[in-house]
């Protein structure tokens, strides 16, 4: 048997110490890692802000008188547009841009161009109504809202901001702009105990609604179908439950949550306001 070198024992001892220290480092690192929170705070994403579109050519007429009384109860279902916050700066859109009611609530800037009847004003209007086609007349002679024309049939007070009313019809430039609203989105309830019909008003940002859901305190999220204009419906028994809504913008696709909009004792015929809105 070969003799053991006198330094062999020392080498074994040093190697053992290094293994022990390495193990301790691993345990310490694992312990430190386990103390790092499993969830980290993710910075909030800035809200989607709707920006104006480019200017485009169209034509505009007006309907009704200075009171704008004939503009009430339009195809969007806003009822009294004055008491519901839209004022008299509104317009009916030709079907080309009304888009089966998905344009309800959108905001536009309109200015008269290339007409001796033009004034220098710019009107900012909300889409609240449909200007239906008139197939008995030519598109250039009375059938102003016939497809594929883009046309604005404005409330008379709004029209008078851009042109003299005697003009009847004027060429205009228009662009989509953000809707500036005060307060949160409003929900007006109609229907019955098994059918909730909700009119959505005071929508900011792009101003429009593409999808909508409702949730009671005893239900999961229920998809609501588009009824007409700015109204959405759910065939469900929701009485006696506090209601929340989830809304997706038709234009921006942004979704916001409107939690606890209506209390458990909500009633049909009343309007409830959320604390949030689009921008």
From TrEMBL:
Gene Ontology cellular-component terms listed: extracellular region; membrane
Principal cellular location given in the protein's record: secreted
Residues of the Expansin-like EG45 domain: 73-184
GO biological process, one term: anatomical structure morphogenesis
Pfam annotation, one family: Expansin_C
Signal peptide: 1-29
Domain Expansin-like CBD: start-end pairs: 194-274
Cell wall biogenesis/degradation as UniProt keyword: yes
Entry-linked InterPro entries: Expan_Lol_pI, Expansin, Expansin/allergen_DPBB_dom, Expansin_CBD, Expansin_CBD_sf, RlpA-like_DPBB, RlpA-like_sf
Keywords: Cell wall, Cell wall biogenesis/degradation, Membrane, Secreted, Signal
Entry's family note: Belongs to the expansin family. Expansin A subfamily.
Name used for this protein in its record: Expansin
Organism: Lactuca virosa
